[in-house]
Write a structure and sequence with these properties.
about 20% strand, about 425 residues, binds zinc ion, Alkaline Phosphatase, subunit A, 5-stranded antiparallel sheet, 8-stranded mixed sheet, alpha/beta, globular
């Protein structure tokens, strides 16, 4: 029995907060179970993608699984298309989409339609787009995923499209294939996509994306779903923002080839499922986003069948974006009480190495992801223990693992597997 459990807490890293008496949510939270794991393990800090980079979750997870995001990351659009099991072949264009709200002058009023678009409403808007938008010489599928999120896949039969085009979503920039949230003030207008290389494939891709964007505005404007929403005082989902185009399925080494063990992933969102699939993990779900007890049960069950189990726990990121330090502390306590307590009772640390870290920090006072390093704790197997301290930003800085970059983390965890 040589097993590995790798748990990433979404956005758990933070900074000292005045509302918590100048401690971080991890420091302020009551976490007896995490503390017990930390006392028995070794600690360190991780820069999820690299120093100075504030990553999006998908890119960060890709890196924390040991991949080189600059060379191997295929772009968010492709990841999401794969996560939704869409028919996507190399040469197709896959783009991440958001339903959004614009006013008469196409000024963006809300990037996420007030975050309250129901599944049924989104599905109905997506269906209208699929039926009524016509792209010349191309076919497409627009598939709604969760909330305001969707994916657009465009295909031109017999011709390749290039993913090297700029975003129509003004809140995100492209740096190579990486989507990076823009800092500070951003233009409030939907942008035109532009080719980022001088090829027919990129020009054609940009034209098709712009044509789709224009027609979508017309189709969505007076859609019954939106008329109803306006009547109820809600924002209409009357525009589509597109970003992070990609056109290639990556050929990367699956986790099995690197570690000679089969991996399972326990995740919630299509984008996480996409990362799992591309890295060769079998995907599973359990309970709702914050049903940590159900996730602990599932993780334990998966550990009996797989050598490696990767668990992505949502929860701490959202209060971070909302600037809600107390809420974040509470989520951490919930995770400790319902996830780690079960784990502690049911895991044999002689056989299983447990690693706990985060995909990035989401400091409450920034309300966005930051480049701050995140704590890493490795317990069990041959890991041994260092100074007894807690799983917090400050304590892990003193740990014996020192500071790592995300790409090195999983390999380090693996090196502690029992013989
Ligand atoms: Zn995240
Ligand atoms: Zn976030």
């Amino acid at each position: 029995m040589r097993k590995l459990l790798y748990v990433l807490l979404d956005g758990v890293g933070d900074r000292p907060n005045p509302e918590l008496n100048y401690t971080t949510p991890l420091e302020a939270a009551l976490t007896p179970n995490l503390d017990a794991l930390a006392r028995q393990g070794v600690k360190g800090l991780v820069y999820p993608v690299g120093e100075g980079i504030a990553p999006e979750s998908d890119i960060a997870v890709f890196s924390m699984l040991g991949y080189d995001v600059h060379a191997e990351y295929p772009g968010r659009g492709v990841i999401e298309a794969v996560g939704l099991d869409l028919d996507f072949r190399s040469g197709d264009l896959a783009v991440r989409a958001n339903f959004a709200t614009v006013d008469e002058s196409n000024k963006i009023v809300d990037r996420r339609v007030g975050r309250d678009l129901s599944e049924e409403e989104a599905r109905s808007l997506a269906q209208a787009l699929n039926e009524r938008v016509k792209l010349s010489g191309a076919t497409f599928r627009f598939v709604h995923s969760v909330g305001h999120r969707a994916v657009l896949v465009i295909r031109v039969e017999g011709e390749r499209l290039s993913g090297m085009i700029s975003n129509t979503d003004p809140a995100y920039e492209r740096v190579g294939k990486l989507g990076v949230a823009k800092e500070g003030r951003v233009s409030p207008y939907v942008k035109e996509a532009e080719p980022l290389e001088d090829t027919r494939a990129a020009k054609l891709a940009a034209e098709l994306v712009n044509e789709f964007t224009r027609q979508a505005l017309k189709v969505l404007k007076d859609h019954p779903v939106n008329q109803e929403r306006i009547k109820r005082g809600q924002l209409p989902g009357n525009a589509v923002l597109l970003r992070d185009a990609g056109n290639e399925l990556p050929s990367i080494k699956p986790l099995y080839d690197r570690f000679k063990m089969r991996f399972a992933a326990l995740t919630d969102m299509p984008v996480e499922r996409g990362v799992a699939k591309i890295t060769g993990m079998q995907s599973f779900e359990a309970g709702g986003l914050r049903d940590y007890a159900a996730k602990a049960k599932k993780a334990l069950e998966l550990l009996t069948r797989y050598g490696g189990v990767y668990v992505h726990l949502k929860g701490p990121d959202e209060p971070g974006h909302d600037g809600d330090a107390w809420g974040k502390k509470k989520v951490i306590e919930d995770i400790d009480q319902h996830f780690f307590s079960k784990l502690l009772l049911n895991i044999d640390l002689d056989q299983v190495v447990v690693a706990i870290s985060a995909d990035h920090s989401t400091p409450c006072n920034l309300r966005s992801h930051s480049a701050d390093p995140v704590p890493l704790l490795i317990t069990g197997g041959k890991a041994g223990k260092d100074e007894p301290c807690r799983f917090t930003e400050k304590d892990c800085r003193k740990g014996s693992l020192g500071s790592l970059i995300g790409k090195e983390a999983l390999e380090r965890v693996y090196s502690f597997l029992p013989r």
